[in-house]
């Protein structure tokens, strides 16, 4: 590889790592709302679902804000950042949901 290619590859790797961290940040509203969701599901299923939907909306807003910030700061790395952030978010949501259902 040429030295210029190594620099570009390293920049993309950094964008992917930051995207993974951004995807993890998108899960935070669910982790914070977990106790409320479980408590409300015991009393009233509808209230628990509404709380879960609110956590979902907040997560999507966080993810959208991250992508907009990436677009403003480093537009050339928007694609690797966005793909890694969304992929990590989806995988983490699947794992998190599976742990909620099991318990």
Q: Care to describe what's here?
A:
The protein is mainly α and 103 residues long. It has one domain. 92% of the residues lie in helices and 0% in strands. The chain contains three helices and no strands. It has helices at 3-43, 45-73, 78-102. Helix 2 runs antiparallel to helix 3. The longest helix is centred in the first third of the chain and has 41 residues, at 3-43. The N and C termini lie far apart (50 Å). 13% of the residues are buried. The mean pLDDT is 86.
Short description:
The protein is mainly α and 103 residues long.
How is the secondary structure organized here?
Layout: H1 3-43, H2 45-73, H3 78-102
State the helicity in percent bands: over 70%
Number of strands: 0
Q: What is the N-to-C order of secondary-structure elements (H for helix, E for strand)?
A: HHH
Unreliably modeled segments: none
Question: In angstroms, what separates the terminal alpha carbons?
Answer: 50 Å
Derived from helix and strand composition plus strand pairing, the structural class reads mainly alpha
Strand content: under 5%
State mean pLDDT (0 to 100 scale).
Answer: 86
């Amino acid at each position: 590889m040429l030295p210029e290619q190594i620099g570009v590859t390293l920049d993309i790797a950094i964008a992917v790592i930051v995207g993974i961290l951004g995807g993890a940040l998108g899960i935070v509203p669910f982790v914070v709302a977990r106790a409320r969701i479980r408590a409300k599901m015991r009393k009233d299923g509808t209230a628990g679902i509404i709380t879960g939907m609110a956590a979902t909306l907040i997560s999507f807003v966080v993810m959208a804000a991250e992508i907009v910030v990436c677009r403003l700061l480093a537009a050339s790395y928007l694609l690797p950042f966005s793909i890694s952030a969304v992929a990590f978010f989806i995988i983490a949501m699947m794992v998190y949901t599976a742990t909620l259902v099991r318990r």
